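Worked example 3. Consider a protein that binds 2-acetamido-2-deoxy-beta-D-glucopyranose.
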Amino acid sequence: MKTPFVMAISFLLLAFAAKPLVGSRLHDINGDDVRADQEYYVLESGNGRGLTTLRHRGDSCPLDVAQVTSAPRTGKPLKFKAYNSSRFIYEAVDLNVKFSIVDSCSDSLVWKVDNYDEERGKWFITTGGNEGDPGAKTLLNWFKFERIGTSDPATYRIVYCPSVCASCLFLCQNVGVSFEDSARRLVLKADYEPVFPVVIFPAEGAAKCESRMPVHYNS
Ligand SMILES: *[C@@H]1O[C@H](CO)[C@@H](O)[C@H](O)[C@H]1NC(C)=O
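Given these inputs, the predicted complex is written out as structure tokens:
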């Protein structure tokens, strides 16, 4: 039998191993720091398909966050806002993610984890979230970008694992795509499911950067 000391050490090691690197800034596809005051597209790495809003599955508001299936492939621009309103956006830090384009629903364009969809057995990502005010009340409104690998351009996974409430209990999950009701909608995914890898593309001067995008048109 292991001594409690050895067990404590292995728990500590596990805790460190699972911790992503903090303190690095998010980088866009050009290697520039991602800023809170600029608009970006979040595109799937490899196929370059961006994110947009779609009618809710139950065909009411709020809107679902979904991946584009037709032109423009970039989808809609969005902005990041860190829990502490920092000027630059950091890896593995709680962020509000907000579309910049007003849509048919009057709700906010801030991402949130929607109520559990019993019919489909999933947690969908929708708009209609609250911006700022980090804490238990806004637990469903925070997302993190964590770097995958070290290759360029910087590639990230989107994670729901809020740190804004130390006493709150929830499961950390990746944000991924699920084909539901004829669309590729964003949902929370289990750890063992494939990661949805994204790159961050500056909306400003998008045309200029188009040629740098590592796009493989395989559909
Ligand atoms: C905000 O938080 C990040 C990460 O925790 C930190 O690096 C940064 O210095 C903070 N910025 C401000 C303005 O507090």
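Take a moment to read the result before moving on. Residues 76 and 101 are 7 Å apart (CA to CA). Residues 1-19, 207-212, 214-219 have pLDDT under 50 and may be disordered.
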